[in-house]
Write a structure and sequence with these properties.
The complex is a heterodimer.
Chain A: H1 4-58, E1 75-81, H2 91-108, E2 112-118, H3 120-129, E3 132-137, H4 146-161, E4 167-175, E5 181-189, E6 207-209, H5 212-286
Parallel strand pairs in A: 1-2, 1-4, 2-3
Antiparallel strand pairs in A: 4-5
Helix pairs in contact in A: 1-5
Chain B: E1 5-11, E2 15-28, E3 31-35, E4 42-55, E5 60-73, E6 76-81, E7 84-86, H1 92-108, H2 115-138
The chains are: A alpha/beta, B alpha+beta.
């Protein structure tokens, strides 16, 4: 029979852990609200600019930016956005799994892969897993500034421009709701053409004011910035949501564990009392 | 009823307008653009200035966009603004003050000011004031 004193100590320590996890849950909940708001404010812009870029890629413009030209793929670049801190359930694992699956398809075709990692967890993972990391940035704050991100992205874009990389894919978690975050991989460059109703399928071109080259270059820069920014902001919201859920289930589990141990402890205490009583009674009977 | 086209105005911070309109008047980099439903595809920069929408039903709404891009498709018009604001939300006093500050800085003509930034500021504030005036006229 377990010792009542030992059990009491164990229950105490679990209760302490429970306090910590429930505090972390509340912190995550309040951070999530802010992160979610930031994310939903940025979403229309990034969605619309993606649609516009899709149209542009669909048209047959007089000026073709090199980001618009598909070329034979010899090397693929991945921009993978993960969190800096852990304790957020399977969020990073799911994303990395999805990314690795996609990477494996390329590798099987003999295509090489370069990685650009945003966030600590991804960097840690690929350090042990191995992989050609060409840029990494971590400690991105909860309210990231574009300037913090642009450095590592630029490495990737430069690699594309100089022809070292033929395709860039952005991998991040997309926030559906508090319970579900979906690992998503999207092609960033070359621009993905969107087929859509209302936009004619035959060859057409925009009227450009003032100049096609200037406009398209500006638009593409804006597009990439907004996509990466949105990916990071979205990832922050996912992180907080996943953390909240993870901490909530940790708190619940701790509660269950305490209940169970309490029962065992009460049993042990009761057994000890019964034993003592029967010893006294049998002692008295012997006298 | 007049034919309509779907128009949305989004800025980096929020989607400020989305709905069916009869006409859009925006200030493109090459001059004013008047856009009706079924316009041929057009891609243009946007100058700081007012964006006037005639909604389905004839009502008018005025917004201020501080530069960005406009994409026109026969069935949809998208304005990707850097910042956009409803005309009646513009703080006129703040705009006047910012304009005067920018003018002063330019007049000071010191070497350490960023000339490009200040004159861009000035243009933006002037455009914002223009938007307010247009909005007043309309009412």
């Amino acid at each position: 029979m377990a010792n009542a004193k030992e059990l009491r100590k164990q229950i105490g320590s679990i209760k302490n852990t429970q306090k910590i996890t429930s505090a972390m849950e509340m912190v995550a909940a309040s951070k999530m609200r802010k992160a979610q708001e930031r994310m939903s404010r940025g979403r229309p812009y990034s969605d619309h600019i993606r649609a516009v870029i899709g149209h542009v890629a669909n048209s047959s413009p007089e000026y073709r930016h090199q980001f618009m030209a598909e070329r034979e793929v010899k090397r693929v670049g991945y921009i993978i956005v993960t969190t800096d801190k852990g304790l957020c359930g399977g969020l990073n694992v799911n994303l990395l799994k999805a990314a690795l699956k996609d990477i494996k398809v390329w590798v099987d075709q003999g295509v090489e892969v370069d990685l650009c990692l945003i966030g600590n967890k991804g960097a840690q993972f690929f350090r042990s897993y191995g992989g050609n990391v060409i840029a990494a940035s971590s400690h991105v704050s909860e309210n990231p500034a574009m300037s913090d991100l642009i450095g590592s992205i630029k490495v990737m874009l430069d690699a594309f421009e100089s022809g070292k990389v033929d395709k860039i894919i952005l991998a991040n978690n997309v926030f559906k709701n508090t319970m579900t975050q979906v690992p998503t991989l999207r092609q960033l460059v070359p621009l993905d053409a969107i087929k859509e109703e209302g936009v004619s399928a035959h060859r057409w071109d925009y009227i450009y004011e003032p100049d096609a080259r200037e406009l398209i270059e500006g638009l593409i820069t804006r597009f990439i910035e907004s996509q990466v920014y949105q990916a990071v902001v979205e990832n922050v919201a996912c992180e907080q949501a996943a953390k909240m859920i993870a901490m909530k289930s940790a708190t619940d589990n701790a509660g269950d564990l305490v209940d169970e141990l309490q029962l065992i402890m009460n049993n042990a205490r009761q057994a000890a009392i019964t034993q003592e009583l029967s010893e006294i009674v049998s002692g008295a009977a012997a006298v | 009823m007049a034919s309509t086209v779907h128009c949305s105005i989004v800025s980096a911070e929020l989607e400020i307008f989305s709905g069916m309109v009869e006409m859009v008047v925006a200030s493109g980099t090459m001059g004013e653009l008047g856009l009706f439903p079924g316009h041929t595809p057009l891609l243009s920069g946007v100058k700081p200035g007012p964006v006037r929408l005639r909604l389905a039903g004839g009502e008018e709404e005025i917004f201020f966009a501080s530069g960005g891009y406009i994409e026109v498709q026969p069935m949809s018009i998208t304005i990707l603004a850097d910042t956009a604001i409803r005309a009646d939300d513009i703080d006129e006093a703040a705009a006047v003050e910012a304009q005067q500050k920018a003018e002063r800085e330019l007049a000071d003509n010191r070497a350490d000011i960023d000339f490009g930034r200040v004159s861009a500021d000035l243009a933006e504030q002037a455009a914002m004031l223009r938007t307010i005036r247009k909005f007043r006229e309309q009412r």
